[in-house]
Amino acid sequence: MVLLIGNYRPDQQQSMQRFGTMMLEGLTAAGVPAELIQPQAVFGKLRFAGGFIAKWLAYVDKFLLFPRLLRAKLQSAPSIVHICDHSNSMYAQHVGGIPVVVTCHDLLAVRGALGDATDTPASITGKFLQRWILAGLRRASVIACDSKATRDDARQFVTGGADRPKLQVITLGLSYPYRRLERAEARARLAPLPGLNADLPFVLHVGSNLRRKNREAVLRIFARCQDGWDGQLVFVGERLSETLNAQAQALGISTRVVQLGQQENQALEALYNCATAFLFPSRFEGFGWPIIEAQACGCPVVCSSAGPMTEVAGTGALLREPEDEEGFAQDLLRLTSGEERARWSARALENARRFTTERMIADYCQLYRSLAPVC
Are residues 165 and 239 in the same domain? Predict the structure, then answer.
């Protein structure tokens, strides 16, 4: 049996929650017995708590209460313990002699805590937490990295070039079966979305306001296109900060910016299908899930060539250095041509075929079996 360790729900790390669920459902479908456990909100859900107090009450849930649950589950002697997010790697110290697999999605926060410029600065407590994460990673039997770029970081910051823990690249699969839709179906799904004029073309960005996501560049790139293209700029995910809204106003594009907030998979699938292009000039990523989501829907992708994004996007995207905002704008305008869009749509679909969930689960099963019998 594989014991999966997932994330604390109140932290709202949606992509990590999705990954844990993917692993549980994928292993079950493959006939591998598995159970997913995660820290429960006990003290962290107290209504009087907020801000600083809430953070420390959550630490009680995660670092004092959850290890008790973990040790109880270990009494059933699972064959493998798989920590699904490296930020929980400190739980490896409670496992004992059972093989431990840790999925490392990125080491950007670790690098930031050590002084690297990764747009992820750390507080004093953050630096302590990242050192704790590093210590947990060093206890793993195998660190499964989402990309070669993350593996290279792990080789430098975790193993120091040593052979242990073993490092292996297992790229992600799609967390939802995104696909091409009939145009009529896609447009029907867009109809209820507030503020979006589905009759006008649009560029799509999916992400958050984290500095490394480079949303300020998204606004500037779109502004460079406004005189040559009468389209909209659609943001999905975290709503723009006051600073970013002010930037859109100063650039003269605020009336063409549409903020949709978080969207369910079906609506997001329709947005990918109908967008003229998906714009993703991120400076740092561990993988870049939205790239393959867009590609699986046949949406042309214009993205950064930084970090693992060249690995993920492959030959199915137009790539630019994060600072090349004029180049990004030229590529967006290029994709307003139906012929160009069709060409890059075909390339996107071809590249996305590399990232099936079934392939990801098969890779993990092979890894598990190299460590212990799991079924």
Answer: no
